[in-house]
TrEMBL record:
This is Glycine cleavage system transcriptional antiactivator GcvR. It holds the Pfam family ACT_6. PANTHER family: UPF0237 PROTEIN MJ1558 (PTHR34875:SF6). GO terms for biological process: regulation of DNA-templated transcription.
Length: 170
């Protein structure tokens, strides 16, 4: 089986997931993993499917048939790296007043300390009592054994003070 990664986007409406699932199934594919969401009226997602190599071209052609309903891009999946025994996961929560640059600043610190982001969700919402907008993010990152967690924690604390957000590490 070959792993394919599908990125999908289109105006949100009922039946989009079903349309992709029907095509994957019709071509002998198996829906493995996905992250799907509606954001600002647009349905978007990433889907991992597995399919026998002989059906890849037919599957891709069928997915192109969704054009106008969904834009689908197909990427060949990378071989998953074997899990490392010495790698650990870190959960990082960010909460504060929304402003441009928060994701850039946080991801920059994580990159500097060689952390790999496994998942990241972000949300802005109205601040109930104070007015304005709140930004919240939850990041799960893989920490290499060589990382200096004390230095990472200090860098995130400095950043939190600079951009005036709360950052929690678990």
């Amino acid at each position: 089986m070959t792993s394919l990664i599908l990125t999908v986007a289109g105006a949100d409406r009922p039946g989009l997931v079903s349309a992709v699932a029907d095509i994957v199934d019709a071509h002998g594919g198996n829906w493995e993993n996905s992250q799907l969401a509606e954001l600002g009226g647009t349905f978007a997602g990433v889907i991992e499917v597995s399919v026998v190599p002989e059906h890849i071209d037919e599957l891709q052609a069928a997915l192109r048939g969704l054009d106008g309903l969904l834009t689908v891009t197909v990427h060949e999946g990378a071989d998953a790296a074997a899990p490392r025994d010495d790698a650990q996961r870190l959960s990082i929560t960010v909460l504060g007043n929304d402003r441009p640059g928060i994701v850039r600043e946080i991801s920059g610190v994580l990159n500097t300390h060689a952390l790999s982001i496994e998942s990241m969700t972000t949300e802005t919402r109205d601040a109930a009592m104070a007015g304005g907008r709140l930004f919240e993010s939850i990041v799960t990152a893989t920490v290499p054994a060589s990382a200096d967690l004390g230095a990472l924690r200090a860098a995130l604390e400095r950043l939190a003070a600079e951009i005036q957000v709360d950052i929690t590490l678990d």
